[in-house]
Amino acid sequence: xxxxxxxxxxxxxxxxxxxxxxxxxxxxxxxxxxxxxxxxxxxxxxxxxxxxxxxxxxxxxxxxxxxxxxx
Length: 71
What we know:
Largest sheet: none
Distance between the termini: 46 Å
Helix content: over 70%
Low-confidence stretches: none
CATH class: Mainly Alpha
Number of strands: 0
Shape: elongated
Order of helices and strands: HHHH
């Protein structure tokens, strides 16, 4: 079974699909269609998802290191 990158991304970012849509500047129906496979998720959106997940990981690590340094 093919993984659903839209649902996976929203979950990993702690967002609903509606919040994800607002965050990347598209209509929630568009994200819903990507998620359901009704239309293909464009390459730019897939790259955006990867960037957002990378940013979240970076911010998490930054916070961990910051907390460690402030102890």
